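Intended use. Records like the one below are meant for learning the mapping from a protein sequence to its folded structure. Do not use them to infer anything beyond what is encoded.
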Amino acid sequence: MYIPRDLEKEIRKYLSAREIIAIVGARQCGKTTLILNLLKQLENKKSIKAISFDDIKTLSLFENDMDSFCQLYVKDYDLLFIDEVQYAKESGKKLKYIYDNFSIKMIISGSSSSELSVQSLKYLVGRIFIFTLYPFSFKEFLLAQNPRLVPLYEKAKYGAEITVELNHQLQEFILFGGYPRVVLAKNHEEKITVLKNIVNTYLLREIREVLGLKEDFKLLKLIKSLSLQIGNLVNYNELSSLSELSYSDVKSYLNILEKTFICSLMLPFQSNKRTELVKNPKVYFYDLGFRNIIIDNFSVERADLGGMHENFIFSELVKNNFIPKYWRTKSKAEVDFILEKGKDVIPIEVKVNLSATNITRSFQSFLEKYHPSMGFITSSCFEDQLKVSPGKVHFIPHVKLISYLNAYIK
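Structure written out for the chain above:
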């Protein structure tokens, strides 16, 4: 069963362009499935070759005998798809050679952005468009679970009854996450088994083989520590102690976790942009199912529910191309998320439950200091508006936030 991805629309814009299309993202998030679906629609119009560097012989040919590689996989083809490109050494230099010497469209995919970072990009400047595919967003999750809800979800024009149904779907989503194979699993037991396999594949293959780390148990300790601190400021010394890694290794491993799309470090919002770079970030996971399997907790009633709801909002913002930051003062006034739109700033506060239009002192402090045109306080189901100077604060369910932001900001 194929679930359409929002990223498809963006990629289609560049299928006829000369530049290489690169799709990166975590393992098992659906990169190969998305691309093969696109290629299937082009097969009557173009001569297509699809290969994977997961195949050792193909990889060896690419790395050691470019002439033979081009003879077999480039010459006489209109389009070449290379999967698992992160396994190739000096891929950027070799892709540049193909790009400069052959009239062929290339699409590549990889589960780590590290091989498409500084070393590769210096060869591919002006020759590549890079897109990130994440596990399912909540909208894509609904397409798999109950597609009839999607038009209502997108327009955000529905009452309490639909909100209850969407919250029911949300409960499943924040427990088991959005990896496609997990979403399509038949029952909770199968979902947990799939998640265990994803973690094992990520830790044992991605880290050990691609990134060359030997001490998997320390990395696992680090990920577990991060899993228990979602939404908190990163304390490098504490993480070092818990994981038995050195301070410098903690920073290095966190960089690896970001580049392999497991977790993200969110920067603070500051008027002075230089200050943002030296303040400690907050940590969130791109997929809560991955996070929950790490701590082996899939209970509905739990102490960390507030952090999970906050993490859900973070991941939805990122998957919908927003760049969230957090706001925190020396006096510890704090707002969960800040979005920047030109000179305007939009504060977002996340609550598990809310039954009245109450604004916290921290949120009020932000309103008084920055005078945003609007703000959002999200919760499970409460919906209202409160006029403040100079704009409005919208009290909305979590499930309506993205639709409101798309309407008001984009």
